[in-house]
Amino acid sequence: MRVLVTGGAGYIGSVAVDSLIGAGHDVCVFDNLYMGHREAVNSAAEFVEGDLADRAQINEVMSRFQAEAVMHFASYSLVGESVEEPLKYLGDNVSNAVNLIDAALNAGVQRFILSSTANLFDDPETIPISESEKIVPGSPYGESKNIIERILKWVQETKGLRYAALRYFNAAGCTPIKGEDHTPETHLIPLVLQVALGQREKIMIFGGDYDTPDGTCVRDYIHVEDLAQAHILALEALETNETLRFNLGNGNGFSVKDVIETVREVTGHPIPAEVTDRREGDPAKLVADSSKIRRELGWQPRHTDMKSIIQSAWDWHQAHPEGYGS
User: Fold this and answer.
1) Cα separation of 294 and 301, whole Å?
2) Residue 77 in contact with residue 93, Cβ under 8 Å?
C-alpha cells in the first residue's frame, strides 16, 4: 500500500515509517522539520519537506504519490504551550488537518489514521480509561485532537473516508536507530536521562502530595515500537472497518518516583530529585484500558515493564547524547 505519513521525521512518526517499510509498504514522508529531524527519515521512504498550511503543496504531493492511505502525526503537541497559545493549537492543528483530509478526499484515499491523545481524558470517572469514557479535553491541544476526531467522524459519514483515531498515553523508549530528540524536551524519561548524562543537575518532581501510593503522578508508558505496531494493525483493519477508536497504553501505571528509581537502577547514576509545586492541570492518575484493541486487532505490546523501556532509551541516548546532531 502507498502510505503518506505526515510528521514522519518526528519521534513516533519515524518509527512508524520504519514499521511500514518493514511490512512492505511504500511510504512518502511529508514534514516541515519544525520538530522532526531529516536524519530520522528512513532512506527507503520518499521525503518531501513541506507544510500542511500550504493546501496546493499537500494536494500536489498526495496526487503525485498516488497515496492510498494517510497516517497523520504532524501536530503542535505541547500541552503547556497550548494553554499559553490556544489559537496556535485550535487554529493551526485543526486547519492543517482539514487541509490534509481535503487533499486525501481529492486523491481518493480510502484510509486515514489519526495520531490522537490521552489528553482527551482530563477528568476520567473510571481508571483504567476505556474508549467509552467521557471526553473532557485537558487543554487546547487535547481539544484540537477532539475536534479533528469529530471532523473525521462527519467526513466518514458523508464521504466514506475510513479512519482510525489512536489515543496515545505516554509514548516512551527508543529503537536501536530511532530516538526521542525534542527541543525543548518536556517528557519525563529523557529529562531524567539528561541528569544521568550530566546535561542537567537534577530532575524536578511537580507535586508530591497526590492521592497515589507515593504522592507523585501516575502515568501509563507505552513503548514507541508498540505504538507503531498498533498503527500497522489499524491500517490493515480499515479494510473491513469504517471507524476505529482505540486507547493505547500498556495498562500499567508508573509514578514519577517509579520512573526516577528505575533510571537510577538502569544507569547507575544517583539522579538527584527535588519536589516542587504541582503543575496546573496535572491529573493524579492516567492509565489506559487497551483491552479493546487487544481483543479486536490482536495487539500485544512487547515492552510492558519500565526497566526495558528505560533501557532502550538509555542505550539510544548514550549513543546520541546530543540527539540526532551527535
Assistant:
1) 9
2) no
Beta bridge partner(s), residue 113: 71, 164
Q: State how far the Cα of 27 lies from the Cα of 42, in Å rounded to an integer.
A: 9
What's the pLDDT tens digit per position in 296-306?
A: 999 999 999 99
Three-class DSSP category at 112: strand
70, containing H or E segment: strand 69-72
Positions annotated as catalytic residues are 141
Out of 3.30.1330.30, 3.40.1440.10, 3.10.180.10, 3.40.50.720, which CATH number does the structure's domain 2-171+222-248 have?
3.40.50.720
Q: Is 280 exposed, middle or buried (0-12, 13-18, 19+ CB in 10 A)?
A: exposed
Name residues of the chain where pLDDT drops below 50: none
User: Taking a C-beta distance cutoff of 8 angstroms, is the pair 97, 151 a contact?
Assistant: yes
Domain 173-219+251-288+303-325 classification at class level? alpha beta
The model's pTM: 0.96
